[in-house]
Amino acid sequence: MEKGSSFTLENGDDNGFFDEDGKIRRTGTLISTSTHIITAVVGSGVLSLAWCMAQLGWITGMFLLVTFAIITWFTCLLLTDCYRYPDHVTGTRNYTYMQAVKVSLGGFKYKLCGISQYGTQVGATIGYTITSAISMAAVKRSNCFHKYGHNKGCHEMNNSYMLIFAAIEIVLSQIPNFHKLSLVSMAATIMSFGYASIGIALSIAKIAGGAQSKTSPTGIPISQSMTSMEKMWSSFSAIGDIAFAYSFSLVLLEIQDTLKSSPPENKVMKGASTIGIAVCTLLYSLCGILGYAAFGHDSPGNYLTGFGFYEPFWLVDIGNLCVVIHLLGGYQVLIQPFFAFVENWSRKKWPENKFIEKEYCIGIYSINLFRLTWRTMYVILATLVAMIFPFFNSFMGLIGAATYWPLTIYFPIEMYISRAKIERASFRWFGLKILSLVCLLVALLAAAGSIQGLFVSVSSFELFRSES
After folding, report:
1. What distance in Å separates the CA atoms of residue 166 and residue 172, rounded to the nearest whole number?
2. What is the DSSP string of 123-171?
3. Integer distance in angstroms from the first to the last C-alpha of the chain?
4. Is 23 within a domain?
5. Tens of pLDDT along 5-42?
6. The pLDDT of residue 9
C-alpha cells in the first residue's frame, strides 16, 4: 500500500503513517533485524559442523570458521551502504538487492544478480522441505529406537512429512511481506538457539561420560577406509559448508528495508550484522568443537537426525522439533524477496487487474486472491520437486557454491569500488580484488565437491522415494 500523491513525500506525512517514499512507515529495529539475520543464517546445517571439523581437523576447521565469519561480516558492512543511492544516508532507497546492483553496476550484472539470488532462494526452500521432513521422521525413529533398541532400522518414508510441512507453509506464506514477519522470525531464532543448545548439551554429556573419540589437527587420516581422493572431496565439501553457513547477503537489503529511518538504516544494519554474525559464530564454534570432541572422526553429518545421540530420546525429539519450527520461519525469511518480485512485476504488467490488486478484509486479516493462489501453487510445486528428487540437498550444495561468491563477495565489493570511486590499481583496489579472487577459488573447490556428491546421490536415486 502506498499513500496518495496529495501527501508531501520529502519528510513523510504529518500523521506518521508513511515514510518519505510513500510506503507505510517502517518500524524495524536493531532487535528485529538481528533476529531476521540469525533466522536466515543459522540453519540445521549448524548440526553438520562436527562432520566438517572431522574432515578438516582442529587447525583448518577453526581457522575457516573464524575467517569466513570475518569475510562475511566485512562484505555485509559494504552492502549496508548500498541501501540508499547516491548518498547512503539521505539518498533514494533501493528496496532489493537487485535494485542496488542495477543502480550501482548496470543492467547485465543486475540480471546476473537476479538469477543468483532467486535461484538460491527457490533452491533453499526445496532443501528446507527435505530437511524438515528428515527431522520430523527422526522424531518417530527416535521413539522407535528407544522402544525396540538401536539395532532396529526404524526407517521412515519422508513424503508424508513433506506434505505436513507444505500445509503449514501454505498458511505462513500468506504473510504479505517482510514487515509482518517479526514474530515468525523471533520464534525461529529462539528455536535455532534451542536445537543448537541441545546439540551442545548432549555433546558435553557424551564427553563428560568418558567418550574416547579420536580427533586430530588435520582431521580424518588417509587410510584404507578413507582414500586420498575421498579425503580431498570431503574436505572440499566441508569448506563449502562452512563458507555457505554464513551466507545471508541475498536478503540483507530486503531486511534493511524494514528499518525505521532514524537512526540511519545503514548504521543500525551494521550493528545488526555484527550481532547476527557474532552470535552465529559462537554457536557454530561450540557445535563444531564440542561435536567433534564428542564423536571424533565418526561425527555424523547431522548428529540429531544422524543419531549421534539416542538418549535421552525425548531431548533428541525436542531438538528435531526445534529444527522443524526454525525451518518453517527460515523458509519465509528466504522466499519473501522472490514473492515480492513476482507480485510487483505482476502489478506493473496488469495494473488495473482486480484479481491482482484487490484486498479483501476478513476480520483482522487482509486476503489478496492473487497472493493466495500463486503462493499456494509455489509451495505445492516446491514440495513436489522435493518429493521427486530426494537427493536435492546435494544439488543445493552446488547452487550454494555457484551463488556464494557473486552474492556474498563479488557484488558487495564491486558496488563499494564503484560508489567509493576507488582508483584502479591502487593498494585498496588490489586488496579487494585479491579477496574476491580467493573466495572465488573457494567457491570453485566447493562446487567440485558438490558435483562429486551429486553423482554419488544420482547413482542410488529412486523416483519419489525419500527414506530416513
Report:
1. 10
2. HHHHHHHHHHHHHHHHHHHHHHHHHH-TTS----BSHHHHHHHHHHHHH
3. 45
4. no
5. 333 333 445 456 888 888 888 989 999 999 989 888 87
6. 36
Measured on CA atoms in the order 380, 383, 389, 394, is the torsion positive or negative?
Answer: positive
Give the pLDDT score at 5: 38
pTM over 0.90: no
pLDDT > 80? residue 462: no
Q: How far is CA 172 from CA 51, 145, 333, in A?
A: 32, 33, 11
Can you give the residue range of the structural domain that contains 378? Answer: 30-459
Q: With bands split at pLDDT 50, 70 and 90, how would you rate the model's confidence at 334?
A: confident
Number of domains in the chain: 1
In angstroms, rounded to a whole number, what is the distance separating the alpha carbons of residues 216 and 238? 16
Task: Evaluate if residue 308 carries a pLDDT over 80.
Answer: no
Provide CB contacts within 8 A for 36, sequence distance 6+: 178, 181, 182, 185, 251, 255, 258, 333
Name the burial class of residue 231, with classes exposed (0-12), middle (13-18) and buried (19+) by CB atoms within 10 angstroms of its CB. Answer: middle
Q: Using CA atoms, how far apart are residues 307 and 290, in angstroms rounded to an integer?
A: 16
∠ Cα 49 407 436 (to 5°): 85
In 3D space, the residue among 266, 247, 264 whose CA is nearest the CA of residue 100 turns out to be: 266
Whether 14 maps to a domain, the answer reads: no
Question: Is residue 25 a part of any domain in this protein?
Answer: no
Measured between alpha carbons, how far is 70 from 274 in angstroms, rounded to an integer? Answer: 10
Q: Which residue is associated with the grid cell 561480516?
A: 73
CATH number at residue 63: 1.10.4160.10
> Is position 2 within any domain?
no
Contact between residue 290 and residue 204 where contact means Cβ atoms under 8 Å apart: yes
